[in-house]
Amino acid sequence: xxxxxxxxxxxxxxxxxxxxxxxxxxxxxxxxxxxxxxxxxxxxxxxxxxxxxxxxxxxxxxxxxxxxxxxxxxxxxxxxxxxxxxxxxxxxxxxxxxxxxxxxxxxxxxxxxxxxxxxxxxxxxxxxxxxxxxxxxxxxxxxxxxxxxxxxxxxxxxxxxxxxxxxxxxxxxxxxxxxxxxxxxxxxxxxxxxxxxxxxxxxxxxxxxxxxxxxxxxxxxxxxxxxxxxxxxxxxxxxxxxxxxx
Length: 246
Known about the structure:
This protein is mainly α. 85% of the residues lie in helices and 0% in strands. Helix 1 runs antiparallel to helix 4, helix 1 runs parallel beside helix 5 and helix 5 runs parallel beside helix 7.
């Protein structure tokens, strides 16, 4: 029993932890542990708050029942899941970078992605633990989420962090302010719609699953491109500062 619980928790925690280690490794100038821990704990708080909000929205849409149609899956994906989750992540990302533990260190383009990923993975790891501990078929659920759901939250966080950094360091425009929420919300809603469509009927589920794989590959290609873009912006900033000191 104890070994099973340990195995479940490891399965739930390891995927997000590996993605945290990866983005930490990519950061040209490492953020202090205290600042990253604060961002991660903010993500955990998002997960706790999101549960109550999502239950309230779901009840208002479906009562005590569940969705049974494609329209229901779309409403569930966008309004019950994507809207409160991405909204709360952005609120807590904004709060985190203004906190005294983080604010002095939020000073480079790539920092937006770093802190967004730590908030996002704090959320994703808690969500993953809840799913794995509550499902009888926990091994299959855990493996599926390790390769799809957790990396999806990672990609949403990168997109959010990218436009968050552009807004703060490059162009303080309404466009970037809009995109830092809307794109993660849109991607999250599309992802969840595909996942939730799987259980409506076998034919739709099979098609949705194939589209989901392509969608995830394209989403991660976009995320990796944004990682490279912000690393390049960091490098250009350093070169400009070096040229001024020569």
